[in-house]
Amino acid sequence: MVTRQALKGRETAALLRGIFKGSPCSQQSGVLRRLQVYKHCIPLVESGDLHLGKASEIIGLLMLEVDLPGHALAELATLFVDVIKAGSLSNGKSLELFSTVLTALAGSKESLAYGKGNPSQKSVKMIRLMFSKLDLQEIPPLVYQLLLLSAKGCKKTVLEGIIILSLSSPLFTTWVATMPLDQLRHVEGTVILHIVSVINLDQDLGEELIRHLKTEQQKDPARALCPFSVALLLSVAVKHRLQEQIFDFLKTSITRSCKDLQFLQASKFLQDLFPQQYDVTTVILEVVKNSAFGWDHVTQGLVDLGFSLMESYEPRKPFGGKAADTSYGLSKMPAQQACKLGASILLETFKVHEPIRSDILEQVLNRVLTKAASPVSHFIDLLSNIVVSAPLVLQTSSSKVTETFDNLSFLPIDTVQGLLRAVQPLLKVSMSVRDSLILVLQKAIFSRQLDARKAAVAGFLLLLRNFKVLGSLSSSQCSQAIGATQVQADVHACYNSAANEAFCLEILGSLRRCLSQQADVRLMLYEGFYDVLRRNSQLASSIMETLLSQIKQYYLPQPDLLPPLKLEGCIMAQGDQIFLQEPLAHLLCCIQHCLAWYKSTVHLCQGAEDDDDEEEEEDVGFEQSFEEMLESVTRRMIKSELEDFELDKSADFSLSSGVGVKNNIYAIQVMGICEVLIEYNFNIGNFSKSKFEDVLGLFTCYNKLFEILKEKAGKNKSTLGNKTARSFLSMGFVSTLLTALFRDNAQSHEESLTVLRSSTEFLRYAVSVALQKVQQLEETGQTDGPDGQNPEKMFQNLCKITRVLLWRYTSIPTVVEESGKKKGKSISLLCLEGLLRIFNTVQQLYTARIPQFLQALDITDGDAEETDINVTEKAAFQIRQFQRSLVNQFSSAEDDFNSKETQSLIIVLSTLSKLLDPASQQFLQFLTWTVKICKENALEDISCCKGLLSLLFSLHALYKSPVGLLRELAQDIHACLGDIDQDIEVESRSHFAIVNAKTAAPTVCLLVLGQADKVLEEVDWLIKKLTSLGSDTSEDSSQASNQAQALEKGVILQLGTLLTVYHELVQTALPAGSCVDTLLRSLSKTYAILTSLVKHYIQACRSNSNAIPARLEKLVKLSGSHLTPQCYSFITYVQKKKKKKEDEAAAISTVMAKVLRETKPIPNLIFAIEQYEKFLIHLSKKSKVNLMQYMKLSTSRDFRINASMLDSALQEHNAEDAENEPDNNQVRTRLSAVTDGFPLP
After folding, report:
1. pTM of this structure
2. Which residue from 7, 234, 989, 1187 has the highest number of Cβ atoms inside 10 Å of its Cβ?
3. CB of 1074 within 8 A of CB of 1118?
4. Which residues are bridge partners to 1068 per DSSP?
């Protein structure tokens, strides 16, 4: 009747009202009748036969009459699911009714009885089917209704459906392809808001969300932590009650993800099993990107998470150097990666969300101030990046910056310099901020605190570098780049240029006062003047005059007076203590560099212009004064003897006396002055023979002092000589000097260079200084001297130095050189050490520029395009050169073998091998060569053996699992050391000649066990993954099952081969000590992992009735036949050796304590074996397979009874008992001997 009325277009609503009125819900028959109407009308509306208006009328009436009992509503919900499953929804009009049904169901007082049997799966399917049929805009209301429904006790089910089927899921690829991205993101944001609003009303739902995601993460991190779920968590985290739980969960997930990625990257075996690597950091950064689509509710959570990560995983100690380079050495550590992720989250959030910028900036500045005692370089880096990304944002927050300036005096100098560099662009834009900074600095310069005065000097030097006076030359080394908006803001060019000159001269006046302060303050000035001069050339006159007046205080102008400088004026005495007052060598170094720059730049430019003759004459005056002074000092320093400085061999250099301290200070100053003059004379000499003779004369003076300090250091460890003072040569000069000494083939230079090349000591000195500079760069990220903080210049100098050292080392072998050397390291060996440090430094500091570095070393391919650089090929070419050197070492006579050089060569090869692509042919060739070297060379040097095997293991792990290699090495160790049963002759199977009597134990044995432990860690990690896959009940569990089978196969094969490794080692007559203890601990770990595998199969048998695989039976059989019996024999062997050792020792109490300590691994191993056998029994019962048939019980438990001794003791006891009452103490003494060293219970 209803159908006929509807199809004919008649008044259907009146008919339905009549039916409902006659069917009250208070009667069972009325409820059934109403249900029948609903069941009939829903398919009718979806059939498409009705007019759209008529269908809307029917649905509207049905929505009004939906007040049904709970069981009827559940039946209606089931009906909708069946309709959706059948695919009979034509227009989706009836889904409006479904939303009302769910709302009514959520409000029903009856318990939810829908979906008995498997409610989770049915509900998830229901949600999936509904989502796929709904329009995009209809999803948020449906989600809200489902969340209300969750109050009935199916929270986990609803959350699982929403998260798994969120808009980030692959199920919605069709929407992503057809709908605008902003619409999708807005819908996601609305869904998140609905969930958060319901969680605010129902806290249990929030806790259920966290529990669900933790569980899912164990199974599949990619499914649990998608961008949608992370955004949801961060939105919920705003509620303080759940914030700690959520952040702990996210931080744990981040560090675990970083560790897993690190784990996978180090093992080809794991990479094959897990080709797709999940990285949670990418997911979180995607959340930041998505939050641009109006997700304001996520931003606060992102900011809190970012700061939480930066604080939880901050650097633990200062690394030195400039702020930007502090964490370069640890970027691969999971903690450092988490810290960097926190900085990236904050930076990207800062870029995307303008309203929260001031909050982020304020929090960063607060942490820089409040965490002054701990490293804050990561916060300063973030501040610098923030300023670069949005330069003018600081102008609106200038009050926060000026508040920070007020605390500069209390901050460490490194923090002050980093902070000022970071906010420097603001000083060009905001005059008020600049003025407030100047006030703070002027107060600080008169502070009693040394750090405050150093902070003032650092601030003033920064201002001088960045406020150019009109007419200053442009510099390629500009300060921190600023945005176009700032340049536009700085429009008052005339005012700025005129004001800047007066401003800079005022600052210089303040800095001149610092030249009478402590040495540390003066030192900062001398190191900073060169950069000021280079960036603000119009200040040249003022700076040079200042330096001239300062040096005149210590310069003795009389041409025949020796020494030429007043060293006694450089020190200051306070009571019994003596301090350096004037760092004279640094002052001279500053003069030398400033003069060289002035002559090469400003003077040439002024010489081309004739419009300012008076100023030019004045400048030429101080230039001439400096040149005459340096010439005179050079001449007189060469003539001076050590006695003129009171620094001959008889002088006291101990730090325990005032005279010794003074002499040490004098010596370092004189050596520094010599070095400064060496650089000056070389640079102005233009390859003049006389100048190079002066250079050699200065070096002679330097070397005499150096040798005296070195000799004194050997006698007295408290002298400064045991720490080589930093060289005053600049990095740029070192690269120039080395190139001239070793690679300059110009005919016109040959005569003058011969003067320097004739001195082996000078050549060794030049390479040593290069080594020292590279070491400083590696440790701090910068070097002393001009351009020391310029990464580009440092990189260029590194390339030059590397080319020279590489040529020198490969051209002149150490053997040839050492035949004529007297003492000290050979130049070739120093070159090799330098190359090793350079390769490390480049990989740490200049990772992105490795292709350019390798190309710079290859002079045959200098014109290649940067895009064409093949890093693997270039690295392989360099590797081949060092391979030849290593082969030459192995093939040399025993007397010519250089252990130190061989070790360095192996480390260089190991470092360069990291640049090879593991999938390349070159990598395989290098691995093959390494295996061949280990097999053919009977190397007896312990350190070289350790280095070579470590290289072999690291390479092999990136090619395939090293278990087969470990088995061969274990067989060689067994053959070399013999069997624990002396009557058994071990078959001689020598695979690797490197395993011999000197290296087998402990060196090779410990390396093999160490590598075996790494394999065990991988297996343990895989078993955990297996367990999580086994608990996966999702629809794509078939895929998980296939992956689980692959993992099981890999785990069992790895363990099977490892058992054969231990089978060899436990039969080996290992010497007592580290080898035995390490092996026992490793065996315990092996049995623990075998137990974990057995537990996994017990769990698998509970969840399904599948039989255990045949591979597992074979593994159990192998452990029962080839390992457990041998373990017990090995325990007996170890105890006999320790018993014998105890008997031979004199101090019984000490030895007993040591024996008890050493035998601790034995009971641990026995316990691990018994646990393994215990769970094998459980698995046998579950699987109906008798696995214990392969296991043989042993008497090696807590104690062993020696049967023969027991019989004899009992016979004696019986005989004595027949005569008289026995003494209990005597019997106990005899019986204790029977138990062979183990206590009776």
Report:
1. 0.83
2. 234
3. no
4. 979
